[in-house]
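Dear support,

I submitted the protein below through the web form. The confirmation email said the job was done, but the results page showed an empty box. After a refresh the structure appeared. I'm attaching both so you can tell me whether what I see now is the final result or a partial one.
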Amino acid sequence: MSRVFAKLLGLLFLILVFHTVVMELVFSRLMQHQGVELLRLIGRQAFWSGLISLAVALPVAAWVAVGITHRLQRVVVFARRIADGDLEARLTLDGNDELADMEAALNQTALRLGGNFAEIESHRQELAAMLDSMQEAVVAITAESTVLWSNAVMQRIAGMQIRTGRPLIHAVRDPELLACVRGALEEREVRTGRSSSLAPGRVFEISAAPLPNGGALAVLHDVTRIEAAEKSRRDFIANVSHELRTPLTSIQGYVETLVDDPLSNLETTREFLGIILKNATRMNRLTEDLLALASVESPDYVLKDQPMRANVLVKDAIDALGGIVVDSEVELEFAGAPEAMALADPDAVNQIFGNLVENALKYAQQSNRIRIGANLLENEVEFFVQDFGPGMASEHLDRIFERFYRIDKARSRESGGTGLGLAIVRHLAETHGGRVWAESELGSGSTFHFTLPLAQS
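What the results page shows now:
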């Protein structure tokens, strides 16, 4: 800006000097034809008038130059703010000259840039929010194999190791993921893989695709639940097949014996038919339990909840289950229950108590008694069924409610258990919005608990 000011002053000075020289030449010509004294007087007056004009013009020129310089400095400051990313910067319009037009044009340009960048940032945030809301983990990699971007799921999986600008190999040590990304970067084609070491206990399907800028995009789909469901399905089919094969094999063997020897004595025939009936009954119970489990696990299963007093639920269960224990010399004891109102489906609760009592009967022969009761908790009612049998080790407590899980397989099959009763109990209790758990010590019996929510007053 000082250079502009200097040029203006220099131009003004040259104009004034030129004016003085011209006047001097004119006066010199006049001096050749007029009196010397008169011409000298006129020359001196012209000289002093020039000096006075110069003295007046210099401040005016300086004032004009300073104003222009100040406006140009504001334009420079404005340009620097825009270059630094401050798109909210604006110029104050002064006057109605060409500089004002330039300032208005610059303001309009800044306004459009701000709108464009705001729209781009809005789209970027929307895209980031969409990618963060995905169930899949996503990571973008540059052509140099450094992390360009990762969504929240990927950051939770990899932790603080994955950061923008850091080499992917330093952030993720999974060989399958690195191999897929390397293939997408080098061969420019989609690569797929499967990882089970990226996060403990989780399985991911990997898909890495090349990007137009030379980088790659890797998407990790968590298939842990699918794998668990598939394994559960395979185990379920294997367990059902095994449970059915044993009684079917027994029935087939005894029927073939009877067919091959139709004239066997009556006592042997009755014995064989009794065994066939026992195995058929076992298969029928397994089928009923499978249907019951499928029913309570179905999304269409709906409870008929209603407010019921806890003590009434316990007493109704004891009355309904009296016929089960009448031939076993086991007594069902009422261990007390509050009158609090629980939200329950009476038929489902009776089924829970029935399965728990049947389970307790297998181990209650030593004490000949089973206690049934309830306790009032803060927001729920806790029901329990207690036996005084041999108990079980602590490592079984977390798995006792799994389908087909048995502590003593031989004893369970001998007693006619299907391995599904406690699984049905868990599903019915959880469908009510309650919980289920077991407590036991070796030699001190076992207690099975389930809760039901309190009914709103």
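Response: this is the final, complete result; the empty box was a page-load delay. The chain has four domains: 2-83, 134-222, 226-297, 306-453.
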